[in-house]
Design brief:
The complex is a heterodimer of chains A (36) and B (475).
Chain A lengths: L2 H5 L1 H19 L9
Chain B lengths: L3 E5 L3 H13 L5 E6 L3 E3 L4 H4 L10 E3 L1 H7 L2 E11 L4 E6 L4 E5 L2 E4 L3 E4 L19 H19 L4 E7 L7 H17 L6 E6 L14 E4 L2 E4 H11 L3 E3 L2 E7 L2 E6 L5 E4 L2 E5 L1 E4 L3 E2 L8 H4 L37 E3 L14 E2 L5 E2 L7 H19 L15 E6 L9 E6 L20 E5 H18 L11
Parallel strand pairs in B: 1-2, 1-8, 2-5, 5-20, 8-21, 10-11, 10-18, 11-14
Antiparallel strand pairs in B: 3-4, 5-6, 6-7, 9-19, 12-13, 15-16, 16-17, 22-23, 24-25, 25-26
Helix pairs in contact in B: 1-8
Classes of the chains: A mainly alpha (36), B alpha/beta (475).
């Protein structure tokens, strides 16, 4: 990804939502293989 | 009498276990936490303290009020001896008093001993380098860094070396964050042209981070940590010494050995190097008074748990080598989690320099994975308190890991690498291609990461202070 997209805030806002949703779902064990 | 649960250490693993036990066994067991540090430190933000972009007060909080709120006891002290047969721990309190604490279930979450002595000349106290491994170290690192900034403003050229200070060190990710934050801070100050930055790491290749690398599929293309870190180093004009083990640090000159190269030296004006981690020096004593430390721990001082410690080469590493429940193989009421447990082997490829010196990145067990281990041990102890077997498991070869590697703290023009890997330790039986589920891996660089890093700082400090709704925030 180029430097422009790394700082283009509308795209970064979308990435923020995607990454945080993904992290939350994986960490909560809602998706992924791990369930303690 | 209620069962007594004793937690040694109040870092990510110990404190997370205490939080979960406060709900799991609220009325059925007594929980006591022993820690020589009366504050919890949010270590991921220390890199910002060490560049002067965050106040030290923003990264830690008092533990005692939190334990009072969740109904746990707190002892400000350091464990010196564990007597597993007698179910006792000897503790030296902050006031110098010797106390004997009994337990029915014990969690050793004492974290690392920062082994600065492992490399001559390393460390902030008696050596020649700075560190970001504690608040005090980060403050000293900040002051020395700001002195360099003053020199740069005066037009002098300065060389800053950042990395790990031992051939078997861990936490390369934290060192890399500091490097990139120094780079971003110097750019923001308009001083980058007068500064030379050098990255020195024991990783077999850039972007390994002690977890045998990271990767994700982006628009159908496999992106690796190695390609990403090489790009970032090139963009920032940072010189890299990879697969290198620092062997000695003289004032102004550090010595290293490197795989496939002759030993070398680097002159520096400021060096921030993470030390090797060892187990906290605690003595283990049997019921007959004999020292059983060798039985309970590996030579590096970390506690043996239910891992398979058979020596293996990289190609023979197995997912099931990693511990599942973190219980001692000798005592079913003694656990170790976080940095305190002994990993069965590295995750990364280890190699030897021409002198025979082994240069290997040790696997990180911090942050999210420590929290997951702490919660898992809490769930197992709660089951045992209820008379049930301990069945909760969290092998590093099955749990996910997430990390936000800051590369500039500003929420306006900062940046960070957002990394998700599932699982942390590769499992080639389950995922034959790359040992990980690539649909559950991510690797992204940009402003979104800077926002995420800030958001996680606030969210986790909220959770770890047991503020309302803390249970909703995952480890």
């Amino acid at each position: 990804m180029g430097r422009f997209w790394r700082q283009f805030w509308p795209f970064q806002a979308w990435r923020f939502l995607v990454i945080n949703t993904k992290m939350f779902l994986i960490a909560k064990g809602i998706v992924g293989p791990h369930h303690t | 009498m209620k069962p007594r649960i004793l937690i040694l250490g109040a870092g990510f693993a110990g404190h997370t276990a205490a939080l979960h036990l406060s709900t799991l066994v609220r009325n059925t067991a007594d929980v006591t936490v022993v820690s020589p540090r009366n504050r919890f430190t949010w270590f991921p933000s220390l890199i910002w303290v060490a560049t002067g972009t965050m106040s030290p007060d923003e990264v830690h909080f008092e533990l005692a009020p939190v334990y009072e709120k969740i109904g746990s006891a707190y002892v400000d002290g350091r464990a010196t001896t564990i007597k597993p047969d007698d179910r006792q721990v000897l503790v030296t309190t902050a006031s110098g008093e010797e106390r004997t604490l009994g337990y029915d279930f014990l969690l050793n979450a004492t974290g690392p001993y920062l082994n600065f002595e492992g490399t001559p000349g390393l460390g902030p106290a008696t050596g020649n380098t700075t560190s970001v491994c504690s608040v005090e170290h980060a403050i000293e690192a900040r002051d020395k860094y700001l002195a360099i900034v003053r020199d740069l403003k005066a037009g002098k050229r300065r060389r800053i070396v950042v990395g790990v200070g031992h051939p078997a060190a861990t936490c390369e990710g934290a060192a890399f964050e500091y490097l990139m934050n120094v780079d971003a801070d110097l750019r923001a100050r308009g001083l980058r042209d007068n500064a030379e930055l050098v990255w020195i790491t024991n990783e077999p290749e850039p972007g390994d981070f002690g977890v045998d690398g990271i990767e994700a599929v982006k628009r159908g293309i496999l992106v690796t940590g190695a390609s990403l870190v090489r790009m970032l180093l090139d963009e920032s004009r940072i010189t890299a010494k990879v697969a290198a083990g620092v062997t000695k640090v003289d004032p102004g000159v550090l010595h290293y050995e490197q795989i496939g190269e002759d030993p070398g030296t680097i002159e520096y004006d400021l060096a921030m190097l993470i030390p090797q981690f060892r187990g906290i020096p605690v003595k283990y004593v049997a019921g007959d008074g004999s020292d059983i430390s060798e039985k309970m721990t590996l030579p590096n001082g970390f506690m043996r748990v239910d891992a398979d410690y058979t020596p293996r080469q990289y190609a023979d590493y197995r997912a099931e080598d990693w511990p599942a429940t973190y219980v001692s193989p000798h005592y079913d009421n003694v656990y170790a989690a976080g940095i305190a447990f002994a990993p069965p082997h590295p995750m990364s490829k280890g190699k030897k320099a021409s002198s025979g010196l082994a240069i290997t990145a040790t696997p990180p067990r911090t942050g999210m994975v420590s929290g997951i281990m702490g919660r898992t041990v809490a769930e197992n102890i709660a089951d045992q308190v209820a008379g049930k077997p301990a069945t909760h498991h969290a092998r590093m070869s099955e749990i996910p890991g997430a990390c936000i590697a800051s590369m500039g703290s500003s929420i306006w023009n900062g940046s960070a690498a957002s990394i998700i890997m599932t699982p942390v330790a590769r499992d080639y039986q389950r995922y034959p291609d790359r040992g990980r589920d690539l649909s559950l891996c991510d690797l992204d660089v940009g402003l979104a990461g800077a926002w995420t890093k800030r958001a996680l700082h606030s969210a986790f400090l909220w959770k770890l202070q047991a503020k309302p709704g803390w249970q909703l925030i995952p480890e």
